[in-house]
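Re: Re: ligand-bound prediction request (bumping)

Still looking for help on this. To restate: I need the protein modeled with guanosine-5'-monophosphate bound, output as structure tokens. Inputs repeated here so nobody has to scroll up.
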Amino acid sequence: MMFVLLYNYVMKRGLLIIMSGPSGVGKGTVRLELMKDESLDLFYSVSMTTRSPRPGERNGVEYYFTTKEDFDRQIKEGNLLEYAEFVGNKYGTPKDKVNSKRDEGKNVLLEIDVKGTSQVLEKLKGDEGVISIFLVPPSLEELEARIRGRSTETEEVIQKRLKTFQEEVVYKDQYQYIVVNDDLNKCVEEIRQIIKSKM
Ligand code: ADP
Ligand code: 5GP
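Reply:
Sorry for the wait, this slipped through. Here it is.
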């Protein structure tokens, strides 16, 4: 007990940073920029998903790619901090690393959807180390141009993802910060300042 108290006093527990936003807004791009800044001491929580890898995506780096059966087993065994279905696929956060890395003092970054965020905020109510950020595009036209520019989805999936934005935006008030990703550098700087102010 004494050791735990002393440990917590000396080692500040890491933050849990939730970043959400519509598909194509630039979450992945912003995350890669943030991860370059070692002073932020970030650990990216790699999610599990049933969707197929895009060209260039590696198992264990962008996602842990898995089957529907395995995903359901992970849910049953209580291994996920949260999970949600997004445009026909399941996505979830393995919980073991989130806790252990925060205990080590690392600032853990989650890139999850609005429904997953509701679950985390409910589970971690009162945890002052939680930061929630919702990224928005400068306009709907620009969002569409970015999804298309990425060239990773079929027309049908692009349409579904754009439509999902109308449902997602209803959840924006659950976030502490809403940041516009217009100019990439400005957006990254804004988020960097938010994180630094809580460290
Ligand atoms: P998300 O992870 O939110 O789905 P991505 O990071 O894959 O989005 O970005 C979608 C596309 O938009 C990519 O082609 C990316 O290069 C581009 N992009 C990201 N941020 C900006 C920005 N600020 N200005 C212009 N294009 C951007
Ligand atoms: P994509 O297929 O574009 O990588 O992700 C689709 C959506 O799923 C995005 O909104 C992304 O933030 C969300 N997502 C990714 N990982 C997780 C996760 O672990 N949990 C939840 N709830 N959503 C996730």
